[in-house]
Design brief:
Elements (H helix, E strand, L loop, with lengths): L3 H4 L9 H25 L9 H9 L3 H7 L7 H19 L9 H23 L2
Helix pairs in contact: 2-3, 2-5, 4-6, 5-6
Length: 129
Amino acid sequence: MISVRSAIPGYAGFADPIARRLSDQQVRAWVGERLAALGQRLPDAFATPGFEETLERCQFGDQHVIKALEDGRFADADHVAAVEAEDAQLLTSAARAEAVDAAGIAALIAEVSAAIRHRADAIVALRSR
């Protein structure tokens, strides 16, 4: 499992709402960069169903996630650990883009897309705890 803090230099953390929003952007950017590099390495990736939609989710924040992260409880150690676990899973999935071949693109996109959805659902659910 990839460590978010070691993978993303200058990771903003969870001290306040601004840092949490920046952390969200940093995680999405890291994933998007891996997908964009995959598209450059294997141009047929763009024809893979879900590729462009998944890349777009990296470019634009989920407003439900952003609103949840504004909650002060996300500075709590338990919330931080939960979000960082979701982020680590997402980064681990996206890191596979560096080695995937053309035959594995569809499975990778499905995995990354599911990890993005799971992360968003988990963050929103944490807000209601």
